[in-house]
Design goal:
- The chain is an alpha+beta fold.
- The protein has 2 domains: 10-28 and 110-186, Orthogonal Bundle (Topoisomerase I, Chain A, domain 4); 35-105, Gyrase A, domain 2 (2-Layer Sandwich).
- Helix content is 54%, strand content 15%.
- It has a 4-stranded antiparallel β-sheet with strand order 3-4-6-5, with helices on one face. A two-stranded antiparallel sheet has the order 1-2.
- The chain starts with 9 loop residues before the first helix and ends with a helix.
């Protein structure tokens, strides 16, 4: 039993940390930087047919020009719900309706709004860091369980070091992504 090999599933930890990074990238894509982007509407959920539905499932999102996003709503009865969802989304955009097309003119960002967006980006990054640390804790719990099942102290230290290195790598990646996004937001 003493020479039994204990393996910690670092592939699972890596996959889960990759998931935290991809969630962060999606959240960052929703922050507008003064340029129109269809991805800025991804987090917007519309109250449609009795449930919350992503906006891209009730209409086609287009970017016809650099400072305009349009949503061509498929069901005429959903236009009001789409407008309401956009207004309540916190994007700071006032929709204009033309039949079934909801137009979103993207205003130039002022300094105060840019600072607000950098704070929101920092909050998103902190959520990602917390997710990565929770995954690290799960890995450390696996190691403790293996230690109780007979893993040697040397192996325990090696695995703990590997999990910590993985965590540090992802925390650095979150910080780098945040720095890049904040520079992008503050760019005039």
């Amino acid at each position: 039993m003493a020479d039994e090999e204990f393996m910690i599933d670092t592939d699972d930890l890596t996959r889960r940390m990759d998931g935290a990074m991809s969630a962060l990238k999606t959240e960052f894509a929703s922050l507008r930087t003064g340029r129109a982007s269809a991805s800025m509407l991804e987090p917007v959920m519309v109250e449609a047919y009795g449930q919350k539905t992503p906006i891209n499932q009730v209409g086609t999102v287009n970017v016809p020009e650099p400072r305009m996003v349009t949503v061509n709503v498929w069901d005429k009865s959903m236009v009001q719900a789409v407008e309401k969802a956009i207004m309540n989304s916190g994007l700071g955009i006032n929709p204009q309706t033309n039949g079934t097309i909801v137009m979103l003119p993207i205003p130039e960002l002022n300094e105060e709004r840019r600072r607000d967006l950098t704070r929101v980006a920092a909050q998103y990054a902190e959520h990602a860091r917390v997710s990565v640390r929770n995954i690290r804790r799960d890995g450390m719990d696996q190691i403790k369980k293996a230690k109780n099942d007979g893993m040697s102290e040397d192996d325990q230290k090696i695995w703990e070091s590997e999990v910590q290195d993985l965590t540090d790598k992802y925390i650095k990646a979150v910080d780098a992504a945040l720095e890049h996004k904040q520079e992008e937001i503050m760019q005039v």
